[in-house]
Amino acid sequence: MSEHDVIHLRGLEFYSYHGVLPEEQVLGQRFLIDIDLFSDFRQAGSSDRVEDTIHYGEVYQVIKKCVTEDRYLLIERLAEEIAQRVLRGFTCTSVRVEVHKPQAPVPGIFKDVSVEIWRGR
Question: What domains sit in the chain, N to C, each tagged with a CATH number?
Answer without folding.
Answer: 2-120 (3.30.1130.10)
